[in-house]
Amino acid sequence: MQSVKVRRSQISAEQAAEVIRHQLGGDYQVEPDGATMLHVRKGLAKARVSLRDEPGGTVFDVQGEGSWGVLPVFNLYTKMVNERGIARRTASLLGEAQAFREEG
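Structure (tokenized):
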């Protein structure tokens, strides 16, 4: 899991989803799941993002998810691949997003 802290606080899952959609492009599905969680998907690539407020900003915890199949080893393998791929890319773009750099 990768954690990224940004200066802006009180960020909603919908606001975060909008920024991620804009950065990743239309091939990715980015869907809020409640007020503090969202899912990022493209094919078998999946990541879960949870948000939490802390003093001085918001922390995004980004984790790759596995794809359930017949073999448990497939789930573990896809989780590892997604942790290094889509989760890392999502965490990086959240940390660099201009929209989250200042209070607003």
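Helices lie at 13-24, 72-84, 86-96. The first helix runs from residue 13 to 24.
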